[in-house]
């Protein structure tokens, strides 16, 4: 890896219910490095720990052991308040279900991360509108999420994740609840975004068509990551 990695994970272990008879080790001494500007897909069976890994990468859940470095920062060495600010500035999340706020318009949902950071409404609106344009939602800005299609809602959620220009974007099954025809443009847009912004993407998916946009595909199995080719996955 020629550049210093943006994401550097080592010795990552996560055990749910440690010290109980039901203890379940989902991640087991896992290592992972992601270069700046890379798209990495993580696949694996249901229950293999993909979402757990993504939550830990994003500082939403703590590991039992191990370290996660993002850029210069040791994520779990930060106190909760510092971590929460770091997350808001450095990481964008997109989940399978978009979690848009129903009482706000598409544009207001997209501006939310910038407003939390205290950015002026005017500046935030300009950037949010540009992101909605990029995601081909220019004419949906004023609409409430309840009036948008599933694919449109998910694109609004992607725009919101990109609002603060995060260095790292984490996507958990971003098109998992969409049909193939609705999902395909979103897959293309992830590639376009990387080209235009140079951001780094780690995405979790069961969908080979989405994994196909990645530079590398990893399979999570028995708590560890292994490189695979998509042909192997299909086999
Ligand atoms: N908070 C928790 N407490 C106990 N067990 C948990 C918790 N969160 C997840 N697990 C268990 O850890 C395992 C991995 O869950 P995870 O959601 O990371 O899997 P996944 O690979 O993302 O699955 P899927 O593809 O079905 O979304 C599962 O067996 C799950 O039941």
TrEMBL record:
SUPFAM superfamilies: P-loop containing nucleoside triphosphate hydrolases (SSF52540). Residues 7-235 form the ABC transporter domain. PROSITE patterns: ABC_TRANSPORTER_1, ABC_TRANSPORTER_2. Keywords: ATP-binding, Lipoprotein, Nucleotide-binding, Transport. GO terms for molecular function: ATP binding; ATP hydrolysis activity; transmembrane transporter activity. Transmembrane segments: none annotated. Pfam families: ABC_tran. Signal peptide: none annotated. One of its GO terms (cellular component) is plasma membrane. InterPro entries: AAA+_ATPase, ABC_transporter-like_ATP-bd, ABC_transporter-like_CS, ABC_transpr_LolD-like, MacB-like_ATP-bd, P-loop_NTPase. Belongs to the ABC transporter superfamily. Macrolide exporter (TC 3.A.1.122) family. This is Lipoprotein-releasing system ATP-binding protein LolD. It comes from Longimonas halophila. The lineage of its organism: Bacteria, Pseudomonadati, Rhodothermota, Rhodothermia, Rhodothermales.
């Amino acid at each position: 890896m020629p550049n210093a990695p943006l994401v550097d994970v080592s010795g990552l272990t996560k055990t749910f219910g440690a010290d109980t008879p039901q203890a379940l080790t989902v991640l087991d001494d896992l290592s992972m490095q992601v270069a700046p500007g890379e798209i990495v897909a993580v696949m694996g069976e249901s229950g293999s720990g993909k979402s757990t890994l993504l939550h830990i990468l994003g500082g939403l859940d703590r590991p039992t052991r191990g370290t996660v470095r993002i850029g210069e920062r040791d994520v779990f060495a930060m106190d909760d308040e510092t971590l929460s600010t770091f997350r808001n500035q450095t990481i964008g999340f997109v989940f399978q279900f978009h979690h848009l706020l129903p009482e706000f318009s598409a544009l207001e949902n997209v501006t939310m991360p910038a407003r939390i950071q205290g950015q002026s409404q005017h500046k935030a609106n300009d950037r949010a509108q540009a992101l909605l344009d990029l995601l081909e939602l220019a004419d949906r800005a004023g609409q409430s999420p309840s009036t948008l299609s599933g694919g449109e809602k998910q694109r609004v959620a992607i725009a919101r994740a990109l609002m603060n220009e995060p260095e790292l974007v984490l996507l958990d099954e971003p098109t998992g609840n969409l049909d193939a025809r609705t999902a395909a443009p979103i897959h293309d847009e992830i590639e376009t975004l990387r080209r235009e912004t140079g951001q780094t993407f780690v995405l979790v998916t069961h969908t080979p068509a989405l994994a196909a946009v990645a530079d590398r595909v990893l399979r999570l199995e028995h708590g560890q990551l292994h490189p695979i080719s998509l042909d192997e996955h299909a086999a």
